[in-house]
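Changelog note: in this version the structure field was regenerated for every chain. One regenerated record is shown below for reference.
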Amino acid sequence: MRLVFLVISFLILAGFDRPGGSDIGCMLKNNSFKSGETTLYKIYYSLAGMYFEAGSVNFDCRNELLGNKPVYHITAIGKTVPFYDHLYKVRDRYETYIDTASLLSYQFSRTVLEGPTKKYENIMFNREVHTAITDSGVYHVPDCVRDVLGTLYYIRNLSVDNLKPNDKIDFTMFMENQLYKSYIRYI
C-alpha cells in the first residue's frame, strides 16, 4: 500500500511512455484548491465482500514563501491504521512546493517507510536551466516537468470543457532520478 499507488491511481487510464496526445502547455491557473485545504482519504480493502479500513492519506495545502517566491506547500501523509502496523507498517510523507502562478514544481521530497522498505528522495527543480538536482546528481528535464504530488494538483486544474472522447493530455513527472511520460485520456 504505497502512497504512490494512491496518487498514481488517477493514472490507471493513462499509459506510460506512449507517444501522441495534445500538450496544453506548462502554465495552468489554479481554480480548484486553495491554501488551508485539507483532505483525508481512508483506504479500505475488500475481503469476502466486507470492507476493512487499512490506512489513510491526508493532503494539506498552505501558502508559503520559498525564498522570495510565493508557493503552495503541499504535504501528503500516508499511514496504516495501528491494527495493521505489526503486519506491514506504512508511514509515508510527500512534500512539494509549487509555484502559485504556474503550478510548476520547485522542490519535492519524500520519505517512504513501508514495512522493511525505506526510501528518501529530495529534488530541487532549477527552472532557468531545466535541471532537477537530486542526491544522486543533476538531470536535464523538460520545461513542463513536475513531481508526482505536484502533478496530482496540476491535474485537478485541467479543464475538460473543450475535450472530446479519447482526447489525451500529456504530462511528464520526475521521480527516482528519471522521467515518467504519461497522459490522461478523456473518456
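Spot check on this record: The chain has one domain: 3-185. The first strand starts at residue 38 and ends at 47.
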